[in-house]
């Protein structure tokens, strides 16, 4: 390559890098503000804090309200994740076998990603009521499972696309009925994708706030709802401390998921 | 395990198109039959129907005396070797080989024994603990074969078994495959588009075109005495010559079969001779191929050149383009070709035919005389 050609390329590379860095800063800036605020010694939300302490983090870990919120979030997200993992994985495996209508089924499956969550929340609330029940924690678990299913479906489908369909036929030809093929060949080959998808789904459900806000009965709020309620009533740095922990968890889960689904794909 | 296989009137429709027309084939117990044909001729479909991977629209398949049409793939007791081997990447060599035994609830000790015996059979003992990804192509092939044979299947199906190997390995594996097949005595049906492979490995070759079997016979029969024009042209090079009143027009040679029509004379059946009582031809091209010398020569009054394959040492000198040579037939009675079994669209026929001939000697122009 000649120098005349190289120069504009280098300029483009620099421009792209600078833009990328700016966008990253813009996206990450709130986190950079929230962490110091959470570490503040002040009684009110204030940036920059006048003194540092870990008192607000200590409060999160000791206050029964926050602890109940975390426990509730783990419980709800846990159940929702299991449901989503089973539904999403089943859908991915089933759609691979579908000869016709695969596209339609696929669109239906990923629809929860584009439907406004408010609509889903309202629909669930009214639906459960029309069926004669009361929307509660079970409804919330179901709703979050619906939200997380497309995520699992897409991740597992991506993992399956690297698996030769002839392997399933080979297993059948060797005398294995479909449940055995599933257990011995298909599931082991996408195990990492399923694990990565599950971690990601848990992260999504743990942070989920719209459905949780509308569907959790009073006294049974999940963590995001508690943050929201706390923020609307007071301006304590404890909110920043909780948020920091939530963001930290999200980053850890993301990293774990990437580590599970990325690289070392065996084909 | 020697079992006879009988395919009766097998027909397959796939989304409105007929892929197999009334295919019938009898495979004697313990024999090695190859389905040979261009891509799209229905050979792989036949194999998939036998294995239970694709449904048949009509017809029957008997394994011994047992009809298997209604059985799902996992209950057919058929070993299948896939073109890309389809070894399970998450399992070791040993786990791959014993896979079929797990479905058959074979006790652990017996499994180990069978796996060891089969690895011995394919001459890869001691590889059991390896990951399949760490194997070479040739080794993977043997493992795929071991996996398909370990449970003593009544029938072994091979889908383009050697296509993924390089040329040298392919020839060695042809011999190996044949040895393993003989040793186990497993009735085997292979599919290939490679005529060399088909001719060298099989007891019988079934040549398929447009979803039908055009001819079944020993490799020698189908090559030396092709029944149809398609078979003649698909297997190696062919000089197609007109037959009039029971004789090959050009050489005045008597034929067997119909008195009018077309016959095939292989390039190696034409001899360059010094005697004057022969067909005079002008050499147009010469290809030296080491063990053979391939000539293309035109005869006055005939549009298409004749192909001649000679042994270089048997000639007084190497002819060059422009030389006059005398050609005679080596002897034997050619057979008049049957009217084509299929009525293919001419364009499609040429396409699939050309596609399937991937032999290096394609450099020689392919004669395709129109029947006069």
Which features would summarize this protein structure in a list?
heterodimer; A: 267 residues; mainly alpha; 11 helices; B: alpha+beta; Rossmann fold; OB fold (Dihydrolipoamide Acetyltransferase, E2P); six-stranded mixed sheet; 10 helices; 19 strands; disordered C terminus
* Radius of gyration of chain A from CA coordinates: 23 Å
CATH fold-level label of the largest domain in chain B: Rossmann fold
Q: How many DSSP-defined strands of chain B?
A: 19
SSE order of chain A, one letter for each helix or strand: HHHHHHHHHHH
CATH level-1 class of the largest domain in chain B:
Alpha Beta
> What is the straight-line distance between the termini of chain A?
37 Å
Question: Percent helix among the residues of chain B?
Answer: 25-40%
> Largest interface, by Cβ-Cβ below 8 angstroms: which chains and how many residues each?
A-B, 19 and 27 residues
CATH superfamily name of the largest domain in chain B? P-loop containing nucleotide triphosphate hydrolases
Number of helices of chain A: 11
Q: What's the quick description here?
A:
Chain A has one domain: MetI-like fold. In chain A, 76% of the residues lie in helices and 0% in strands. In chain B, a hairpin with a 2-residue loop joins β1 and β2.
Description:
The complex is a heterodimer of chains A (267) and B (372). Chain A is mainly alpha-helical and 267 residues long. Chain A has a single domain, classed as MetI-like (MetI-like fold, Orthogonal Bundle), CATH 1.10.3720.10. Chain A has eleven helices and no strands. Chain A has helices spanning 3-38, 55-62, 64-97, 102-110, 117-130, 137-160, 166-173, 178-207, 210-215, 223-233, 238-261. Chain A is globular and about 70 Å long. Chain B has 372 residues and is α+β, with helices and mostly antiparallel strands. Chain B folds into two domains: 5-219, Rossmann fold; 236-363, Beta Barrel (OB fold (Dihydrolipoamide Acetyltransferase, E2P)), CATH 2.40.50.100. In chain B, the strands form four sheets. In chain B, strands 6-7-8-3-9-10 form a six-stranded mixed beta sheet, sandwiched between helices. The model of chain B is unreliable at 342-372 (pLDDT under 50). Chain A binds chain B through residues 164, 166-167, 169-177, 180, 184-185, 188-189, 266-267, and chain B through 51-53, 72-80, 82, 84, 86, 88-90, 99-100, 102-104, 133, 147-148, 151.
């Amino acid at each position: 390559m000649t120098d005349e050609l190289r120069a504009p390329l280098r300029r483009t590379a620099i421009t792209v890098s600078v833009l990328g860095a700016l966008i990253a800063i813009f996206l990450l800036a709130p986190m950079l503000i929230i962490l110091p605020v959470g570490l503040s010694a002040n009684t009110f939300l204030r940036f920059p804090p006048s003194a540092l302490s870990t008192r607000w983090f200590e409060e999160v870990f000791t206050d029964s309200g926050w602890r109940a919120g975390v426990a509730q979030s783990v419980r709800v997200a846990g159940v929702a994740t299991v449901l989503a993992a089973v539904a999403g994985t089943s859908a991915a495996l089933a759609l691979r076998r579908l000869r016709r209508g695969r596209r339609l089924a696929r669109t239906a499956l990923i629809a929860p990603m584009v439907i406004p969550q408010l609509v889903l929340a309202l629909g669930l609330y009214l639906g459960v009521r029309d069926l004669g029940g009361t929307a509660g924690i079970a409804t919330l678990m179901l709703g979050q499972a619906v939200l997380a299913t497309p995520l699992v479906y897409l991740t597992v489908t991506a993992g399956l696309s690297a698996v030769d369909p002839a392997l399933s036929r080979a297993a059948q030809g060797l005398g294995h009925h479909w449940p055995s093929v599933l257990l011995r060949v298909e599931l082991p080959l996408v195990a990492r994708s399923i694990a990565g998808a599950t971690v990601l789904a848990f992260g999504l459900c743990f942070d989920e706030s719209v459905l949780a806000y509308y569907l959790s009965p009073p006294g049974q709020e999940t963590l995001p709802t508690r943050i929201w309620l706390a923020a609307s009533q007071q301006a304590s740095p404890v909110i920043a401390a909780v948020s920091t922990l939530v963001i930290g968890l999200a980053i850890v889960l993301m990293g774990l998921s990437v580590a599970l689904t990325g690289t070392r794909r065996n084909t | 395990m020697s079992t006879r296989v009988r395919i009766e009137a097998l027909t397959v429709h796939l989304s409105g198109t007929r892929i197999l027309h009334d295919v019938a084939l009898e495979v004697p117990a313990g024999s090695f039959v190859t389905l040979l044909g261009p891509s799209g001729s229905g050979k792989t479909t036949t194999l998939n129907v036998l294995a239970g991977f694709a449904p048949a629209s009509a017809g029957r398949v008997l394994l011994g005396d047992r009809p298997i049409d209604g059985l799902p793939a996992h209950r057919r007791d058929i070993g299948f070797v896939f073109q890309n081997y389809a070894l399970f990447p998450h399992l070791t060599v040993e786990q791959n080989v014993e896979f079929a035994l797990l479905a058959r609830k074979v006790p652990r000790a017996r499994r180990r024994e069978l796996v060891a015996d089969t690895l011995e059979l394919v001459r890869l003992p001691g590889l059991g603990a390896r990951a399949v990804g760490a194997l070479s192509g040739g080794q993977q092939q043997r493992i795929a074969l071991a996996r398909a044979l370990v449970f003593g299947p009544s029938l072994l199906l091979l889908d383009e078994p050697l296509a993924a190997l390089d040329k040298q390995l392919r020839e060695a594996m042809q011999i190996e495959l044949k040895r393993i097949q003989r040793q186990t005595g497993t009735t085997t049906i292979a599919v290939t588009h490679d005529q060399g492979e088909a001719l060298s490995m099989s007891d019988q070759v079934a040549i398929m075109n447009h979803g039908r079997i055009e001819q079944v016979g020993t490799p020698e029969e189908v090559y030396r005495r092709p029944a149809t024009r398609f078979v003649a042209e698909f297997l190696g090079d062919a000089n197609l010559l007109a037959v009039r009143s029971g004789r090959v027009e050009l050489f005045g040679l008597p034929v067997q079969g119909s008195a009018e029509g077309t016959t095939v004379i292989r390039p190696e059946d034409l001899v360059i001779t010094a005697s004057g009582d022969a067909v005079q031809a002008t050499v147009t091209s010469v290809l030296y191929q080491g063990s053979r010398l391939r000539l293309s020569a035109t005869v006055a009054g005939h549009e298409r050149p004749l192909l001649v394959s000679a042994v270089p040492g048997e000639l007084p000198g190497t002819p060059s383009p422009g030389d006059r040579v005398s050609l005679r037939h080596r002897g034997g009675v050619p057979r008049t070709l049957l009217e084509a079994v299929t009525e293919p669209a001419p364009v499609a026929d040429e396409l699939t035919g050309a596609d399937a001939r991937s032999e290096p000697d394609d450099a020689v122009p392919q004669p395709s005389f129109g029947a006069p």
